[in-house]
UniProtKB/TrEMBL annotation:
Taxonomic source organism: Chelatococcus daeguensis
Stated role: Assembles around the rod to form the L-ring and probably protects the motor/basal body from shearing forces during rotation.
Quaternary structure and interacting proteins, as annotated: The basal body constitutes a major portion of the flagellar organelle and consists of four rings (L,P,S, and M) mounted on a central rod.
Keyword Signal applies: yes
Molecular function terms, GO-annotated: structural molecule activity
Gene Ontology biological process terms in this record: bacterial-type flagellum-dependent cell motility
Protein's name according to its UniProt entry: Flagellar P-ring protein
Keywords: Bacterial flagellum, Cell projection, Cilium, Flagellum, Periplasm, Signal
Length: 369
């Protein structure tokens, strides 16, 4: 029997299998401190130095207005002039400022075209203030843009790869203002789980308490719900060091029994705790092939007949033999072995799993993407 399950490197028709048991993972990899997060910044600016691939000023009036305002600020009067440059493009600049970023540190920015520019390759972003949700300027961006995509056009053909109207500036923004608040300003430390689960939260609290009993002689953690664990920091311990110590503790996260299906690529992901009640499965495919082979009918020589096309259609129907297999999965290995015995393609396995879920025999959540 040929195997039908593939490794994750297979893109089309792959079946990804979860491990038999969850491995111990650091707490810092499955949870984060509530309130310690990035903040989003946004700004509007101009990109110059483009080789004729910028905005058409007639079609992008905001680019022309921005260019006139910038030149007026620099003492160049162009009011009333009919600007024709194609080397300037209006762009939106976005960035994420990390928590506790200090003044003078640098962050990456993303630049995206707003007008009808065809490419930002070779352009340079001019000084652009980046503001937060409170309308305060937190960073200033400027620098040459790195664009991975390109576009080449001729009279009869156009070649485009990637997105040439968007790019990045590594370390392109300089932080000018710190985000209000610090680690010491956070009252009670709360760990937020990336994948909420009651058992995982309890395991995190138990691991932290076992460590704190040895380290501080007291319990400092308690699970509040399936998403968060509350920590009580000892008074004589630095908060950064306290978070660093508990972040290295290892727990075995628990995951719900879940089957994820991507019908576009034929990918199936089965969790380790998925079980199937005893069911009998049969699956067969009906293939109908319609072939059109038109024939040309020629009249006799020197006759008054006409040459016509006579349609000819051939229809073939073939149904594959379906085998009945009994599938019962008390664990992942047994389930995979049972599905392999039926001998199906990944697309057929997707149909079978959906049918088993409808029958109530699949003891897991079925997520179809």
């Amino acid at each position: 029997m040929r195997p039908i399950f593939a490794i994750a490197t297979c893109v089309i028709g792959a079946l990804l299998l979860g491990g038999p048991a969850a491995a111990a993972t650091r707490i810092k990899d499955i949870a984060s401190i509530q309130g310690v997060r990035d903040n989003q910044l946004i700004g509007y600016g101009l990109v110059t130095g483009l080789s004729g691939t910028g905005d058409t000023l007639r079609n992008s009036p905001f680019t022309e207005q921005s260019l006139q305002s910038m030149l007026d600020y620099m003492g160049v009067n162009v009011r009333g002039s009919n600007l024709r440059t194609r080397n300037v493009a209006a762009v939106m600049v976005t960035a994420n400022i990390p928590a506790f970023a200090g003044v003078g540190s640098r962050i990456d920015v993303t630049v995206s075209s707003m007008g009808d520019a065809t490419s930002l390759r070779g352009g340079t972003l001019l000084v652009t203030p980046l503001t937060g949700g409170d309308a305060q300027v937190y960073a200033v961006a400027q620098g040459p843009i790195a664009v991975s995509g390109f576009s080449a056009q001729g009279e009869a053909e156009t070649l485009t790869q990637g997105v040439p109207t968007a790019g990045r500036i590594p370390n392109g923004a300089l932080v000018e203002r710190t985000v209000p608040g610090g680690l010491r300003d956070i009252g009670r430390l709360v760990l937020q789980l990336h994948n909420p689960d009651f058992r995982t939260a309890a395991s995190i609290a138990d691991a932290i308490n076992a460590y704190s009993m040895r380290r501080f002689g007291r319990r400092v953690a308690g699970e509040r719900d399936f998403r968060s664990v509350v920590l009580e920091r000892p008074a004589n311990v630095n908060p950064a060091r306290f978070i660093a110590e508990i972040g290295e503790l290892r727990v075995a996260p628990d995951t719900p029994a879940r089957v994820v299906i991507d019908q576009r690529t034929g990918t199936v992901v089965i969790g380790a705790d998925v079980q199937i009640s005893t069911v009998a499965v049969t699956h067969g495919n009906l293939t109908v092939r319609v072939t059109e082979t038109p024939m040309v009918s020629q009249p006799e020589p020197f006759s008054e007949g006409q040459t016509v096309v006579v349609p000819r259609t051939e229809v073939q129907a073939r149904e594959q033999t379906g085998r009945v297999g009994i599938i019962e999965g008390s664990n992942l290995q047994t389930l995979v072995r049972g599905l392999n015995q039926v001998g199906l393609k990944p697309s057929d396995i997707i149909s079978i799993l959906q049918a088993i879920k409808t029958s109530g025999a699949l003891q897991a959540d079925l997520v179809v993407q």
